[in-house]
Amino acid sequence: MALLQIAEPGQSSAPHQHKLAAGIDLGTTNSLVASVRSGEAQILTRDDGPVMVPSAVRYGQEQLVEVGQKALDAAVFDAENTILSVKRFMGRGYQEISQQAEALPYKLVDQSGLLAIGTRQGVKNPVEVSAEILKQLHVTAEQALGGELTGVVITVPAYFDDAQRQATKDAARLAGLNVLRLLNEPTAAALAYGLDSKQEGVIAVYDLGGGTFDISILRLQKGVFEVLATGGNSALGGDDLDQTIVGWLLQQTGETEQSSQGLREYKLLARRLKEKLTEHDHVDFVLPLQEGEHRGQLDRATFEQLIQPLVRKTLTACKATVRDAGLTVDDILEIVMVGGSTRVPRVRQAVAELFGKEPLTSINPDQVVALGAAIQANVLVGNKSEQDTLLLDVIPLSLGLETMGGLVEKIIPRNTVIPVAKAQEFTTFKDGQTAMAIHVLQGERELVADNRSLARFELHDIPPMPAGGAHIRVTFQVDADGLLHVTAQEKSSGVSASIEVKPSYGLTDEQIMTMITGSMAHAKEDMHARMLQEQRVEAERVLEAVDAALAADGHLLQDEERSAIDASLLRLRASKDSADVEQIKAAIEAVNISTDQFAALRMDHSIRTALKGHKVNEV
Ligand code: ADP
Ligand code: MG
Questions:
Q1: What tens digit of pLDDT does each residue of 472-519 get?
Q2: Nearest-CA residue for atom 25 of ligand 1
Q3: pLDDT at 149
Q4: pLDDT category, 203, cuts 50, 70, 90?
Q5: To test the ligand 1 pocket, which listed residue (25, 26, 28, 29) has its Cβ within 8 A of the most ligand atoms?
Q6: Helix (H, G, I), strand (E, B) or coil at 125
Q7: 340 CA distance to ligand 1 centroid (A)?
Q8: pLDDT for 432-483, tens place per residue?
Q9: Percentage, residues of the chain above pLDDT 70
Q10: Is 444 a catalytic residue?
Q11: How far is Cα 219 from Cα 214, in angstroms, rounded to an integer?
């Protein structure tokens, strides 16, 4: 699907120069930058330095900021001022993180609801910390490419919500980068393997990184990727594999009490052992003890036993996600392996067993995301026009509005491909209503209370009209980065109000899963709740309308007609709060019947009144 190119007015339409673009994998553990050079995506390094920059930032003495390996090394002795895995904090609330059981060595600060970290250089928020990593990659890229970057593509997990995506964009802006777009990590990996030009079908991307596990199911159709489902575990990764070795080491040495510094040393050793076991059957190690040292050996079989429960957890998540996509493992055409931890032979083997075929591992699993991002960046700056890939992502949870009765009207259903814009018309509930409260919600459930509130705003200056007379068009627009803009406009007057949704709290992937599975588990109960609420709202509307009509034209009625109407209204008032949908429905129906004649009388009367004193051609 080629995009049509249009030149800027007054500018030549001649093919432009090759522009510099880069793809950035801003990882939890490691970050890297890549670019397409001479038609091939390559990782960029500085002075042949290391390919991966550990995602570590240290705020040192005298305004010194260290990024990467130096900072990671400092984490052992300056843990309080060295921030690791900042990606976990992006766009997240203070409450959310500070309540996590995991003991963080930092001074956590509540920065108007958002989480920040108190360092010796003052309070730093996750956006600023990430920006330090991005600045480093920015410099690396410009040095390696020998010029200024036109734009970059930054990858984010497929489940990142608005707040997390917005935080990532903010960090890039702070680092002086022009973000062409954010790209889902699994989509980038599939692109790196060139799967976009291969056979159409369903692709699974298994990403086991340092601290997270993500499984994504993508469908490739007509050169377009669509995310069918995402799942995983935000607290499962290489670090947890390391942790099993730490436990084993402690057993071996018989040591129990460990200072946090001692534990960090154990962790670093565990990680080295694990990585060596990828190539070797066994590794020897020496551990300094309080007194003397411990010499030992860890073999691969023991390691595989230690990590088996964790590997099994990832497989369980894979099965659940494949099911969530409405598929079975046999439907999966290719499996792309992403993340340093997929180097572990046992992991590869387990994935191959689950899917019944060998996964793709030929591209370095910790580079594959950055390489894919580079390919996309190259297309987006316009270096490659003929064979554009148009990448589609989906929104993970439905987006909607609160309507009367605390119900949610879904405007964009979950898994809708983005970018997307959808509009729906709403109207006023009361006569003369001049303002409308717009409450934007995210989630799958029918009732407002069971969904997540994203934003609220108000539309004012609606011209007074009878209830139901105003036409208010509410447009939901989700851009290519997954950010939501909501606009409400009253048709006759053109008054409008809008909001860009930047929720201050992020959702974890578990929360997303819970919200999705919750909606299935509660489907029946929700359906009932919705019908009940709808009938209650309808009852309110009918009562208001009849009361208003009686106040205006009640004099037209005979006594017995009036008392029949009053009786039906009484019955409706009594039953409108009952939990019995049918009872409310019947009471509404009774009011409708009792007021039938009255409606006809009013109609006649109003026509006569309208005509009185007017010439026919004036009407
Ligand atoms: P993230 O996406 O979280 O930034 P990466 O994809 O860079 O993480 O993966 C980092 C993880 O990969 C670490 O836990 C690291 O120990 C692990 N890892 C890297 N190389 C190897 C290897 N050769 N064998 C096993 N694990 C490895
Ligand atoms: Mg990664």
A1: 999 998 876 667 889 999 988 888 888 877 533 345 556 556 665 666
A2: 275
A3: 95
A4: very high
A5: 29
A6: coil
A7: 3
A8: 889 888 999 988 888 888 888 888 888 999 999 888 888 899 999 887 666 7
A9: 87
A10: no
A11: 16
- The pair of structure tokens assigned to 35 is 């670019």
Ligand 1 pocket: which residues have CB below 6 Å? 27-30, 209-212, 237-239, 271, 274-275, 278, 339-341, 343-344, 366
Q: Report whether 119 contacts 128 (CB < 8 A).
A: no
Residue linked to tokens 């003369």? 432
Active-site position among 128, 162, 170, 207: 207
Q: Whose CA is nearest to atom 12 of ligand 1?
A: 340
Atom of ligand 1 nearest to the CA of 30: 4
- Token pair listed for 115: 């989480």
pLDDT digits (tens, 9 = 90+) for 533-573: 888 888 988 898 899 889 888 888 888 889 999 999 999 99
Give the number of whichever ligand sits closest to the CA of residue 31: 1
Determine the 3-state secondary structure of 159 from DSSP.
Answer: coil
Tokens of 119: 């360092």
Looking at per-residue pLDDT, the higher value among 334 and 110 belongs to 334
Distance between CA atoms of residues 208 and 588, nearest Å = 57
User: What's the CA-to-centroid distance between 157 and ligand 1, angstroms?
Assistant: 16
Atom 10 in ligand 1: residue holding the nearest Cα: 210
Q: Does pLDDT of 530 surpass 80?
A: no
Answer yes or no: 547 catalytic: no
Measured CA to CA, the distance from residue 214 to residue 317 in angstroms comes to 9
The kind and range of the H/E element at 284 are strand 282-288
Tokens encoding 448: 């407002």
* pTM confidence score: 0.64
Total residue count of the chain as it appears in this document:
619
Range with top average pLDDT, 297-311, 369-383, 531-545:
297-311
What gap in Å lies between CA 371 and CA 498, rounded to an integer?
A: 37
- Return the H-helix or E-strand segment holding 24: strand 21-26
Strand ranges across the sheet with 472-478: 420-426, 472-478, 484-490, 496-500
207 has catalytic annotation: yes
Handedness of CA 439, 442, 444, 445 (dihedral sign): negative
Question: Smallest Cα–Cα separation from 474: which of 464, 484, 466, 463?
Answer: 484
